[in-house]
Amino acid sequence: MAGSVLNASLSIIGAGKVGRTLAKLWADNGVFRLQDMLCQSQKNADSATGFVGSGRAVSDYAALLPADIYLIATSDDRIESSCEELTRRGLISASTIVFHCSGALASSILHTATQQGAAVASIHPIRSFANPEQVAKDFTGTWCGMEGDQRALDILSPAFEAIGAKTANIRTDAKIHYHAGAVFASNYLVTLLDIAVQSYARAGIASDTALDMMAPLVRETVQNVFRLGPETALTGPVARGDMATANKQWQAVAAADATHGRLYEQLMQLTVELAARRKPPEK
């Protein structure tokens, strides 16, 4: 591969929202020399290169030219087969770098490239790419979890930093826990807030009113967690040792919905453990 990032050619397999956004950022900042953008249809490939402003739109692996670096930005269930296809067509060599941006999968999914001596990695930007135009404007400051072969990271880490990313190293054999952390912090938080809305409903409060009531509480709680840390941010019955109130709530919730009751009980116990980690007040 070329000796510097600026001289390296990059082709993107699956130029959807993530692929085209990163391609545009790298193209606009002169980080990589964008070569091919492969999509399942020529229309989508043309749309991707039009968004980026450079690159060659292709819709067939047979049309791909050899590149120094391949980003496989397909859906997770197609990453392995895409890498296999690149290998089958002789596009992977010992000097190639292959990486993907999945949060759930490790770089080991690219094993067919590894067998050819290529360096592999995964780098996961922790943000939504729902609006590529907006993401391309405010990508600076985005955290990216990364793991893989050091040779790949030596190229890709500065490439992401050049477009404003902050990077954090992940243990390859424990990447599933990294992704689980993001699921807890985002997806399951939404589920928990929905359960809160259902609890308000049992008290006769409409869902839109409940959301309005919850908004300042949730925002302030989250801000305090980030500002003070979970232990110090914790408030409420368990935090102040009022287990009588906590147990009454658990029993009431369990009587109304057994599943919610089990969840309340487990969260109560975890909160007891969290409260126990708090430092005693200074005298």
Protein architecture, described:
The chain folds into 2 domains: 170 residues, NAD(P)-binding Rossmann-like Domain (Rossmann fold), CATH 3.40.50.720; 93 residues, N-(1-d-carboxylethyl)-l-norvaline Dehydrogenase, domain 2 (Orthogonal Bundle), CATH 1.10.1040. The N and C termini lie far apart (62 Å). It is an alpha/beta fold and 283 residues long. Helix 4 links the parallel strand 5 and strand 6. It has an 8-stranded mixed β-sheet with strand order 3-2-1-4-5-6-7-8, with helices on both faces.
Task: Produce the secondary structure layout.
Blueprint: E1 9-13, H1 17-28, E2 33-38, H2 42-52, E3 56-58, E4 69-72, H3 76-88, E5 97-100, H4 111-114, E6 119-125, H5 132-137, E7 143-148, H6 150-161, E8 166-169, H7 175-185, H8 187-202, H9 207-228, H10 230-233, H11 243-256, H12 258-276
Parallel strand pairs: 1-2, 1-4, 2-3, 4-5, 5-6, 7-8
Antiparallel strand pairs: 6-7
Helix pairs in contact: 1-2, 11-12
Domain DUF2520: 143-269
Domain Putative oxidoreductase/dehydrogenase Rossmann-like: 9-125
Organism: Paucimonas lemoignei
Throw out a few tags for this protein.
single chain, 283 residues, alpha/beta, Rossmann fold, N-(1-d-carboxylethyl)-l-norvaline Dehydrogenase, domain 2, eight-stranded mixed beta sheet, 12 helices, 51% helix, elongated
Number of domains: 2
CATH topology term of the largest domain? Rossmann fold
Helix content bin? 40-55%
Mean of the pLDDT scores? Answer: 95
Biggest sheet architecture: 8 strands, mixed
Topology as H/E string?
EHEHEEHEHEHEHEHHHHHH
Total helical segments: 12
> Radius of gyration over alpha carbons?
24 Å
Q: What's the CATH first level of the largest domain?
A: Alpha Beta
What spatial order of strands do you see in the largest sheet? 3-2-1-4-5-6-7-8
The name of the CATH architecture of the largest domain is 3-Layer(aba) Sandwich
Task: Tell me the number of strands.
Answer: 8
Distance between the termini: 62 Å
| CATH-level-4 superfamily name of the largest domain | NAD(P)-binding Rossmann-like Domain
